[in-house]
Design goal:
Layout: E1 13-14, E2 22-25, H1 31-42, H2 50-69, E3 72-78, E4 89-94, H3 106-117, E5 122-128, E6 131-137, E7 141-147, E8 154-160, H4 169-179, E9 182-183
Antiparallel strand pairs: 1-9, 2-3, 3-4, 4-8, 5-6, 6-7, 7-8
């Protein structure tokens, strides 16, 4: 009888993101200055009040800080309405810490997420090229929890679409980005 060798955990991932999305590397100490560059660029030209600029900065900074404390790796931002400063579309990529082998099966994970998300969210298990995933879709948020090889847990892709919502073209773009995920 031969022992089954478990799959190895990936060393990295590749995700195709359109060029007009601003990338912030949350694994580097300089992420706050990168975020400030984005906010300053989007709110420049005197078209935005200092109060609105500060509000956008605080919201994005708090999102990034919360993400970093939960294993976030990257934060992507895209302005949906170029002529005025509003909350941008975003993607937060996280690998929440989890002991190897302790991640629940996708079906169990989906069941737990259904209880947490409530009746307004659509929760289902989907097959991505990178593997099985739990997909949660709300009105303005789209989450993919993608099972990692080697029982390493789940990679979380958290899309937020505060203006366009998940039903339109931007929601379909986010689905396409999630489907582009590959393990390296």
């Amino acid at each position: 009888m031969t022992d089954v060798v478990p799959e190895q955990a990936p060393s990295d991932y590749r995700l195709l993101i359109p060029r007009d999305w601003f990338r912030i590397d949350l694994t580097q100490e300089r992420w706050r200055s990168q975020l400030k560059v984005f906010v300053d660029k989007e709110c420049s030209g005197g078209r935005t009040s200092a109060e609105v600029t500060r509000s956008i900065w605080i919201t994005l900074r708090n999102t990034a800080e919360s993400g970093v404390s939960a294993g976030a790796l990257e934060f992507f931002l895209r302005t949906e309405v170029p002529e005025r400063a509003t909350a941008p579309a975003s993607l937060l990529v996280s690998w929440p810490p989890m002991p190897r082998g302790m991640a629940p099966a996708p079906e169990e994970f989906a069941e737990a997420m259904t209880e947490r998300a409530g009746p307004e969210a659509e929760v289902k298990v989907v097959d991505l090229p990178a593997g099985p995933a739990v997909r949660l879709r709300g009105e303005s948020s789209l989450d993919y929890h993608v099972r990692m090889p080697g029982e390493a847990g789940y990679l979380h892709l958290a899309f937020s679409l505060p203006l366009s919502g998940t039903e339109g073209p931007m929601g379909r773009l986010c689905d396409a980005m999630a489907h582009s995920l590959r393990w390296l």
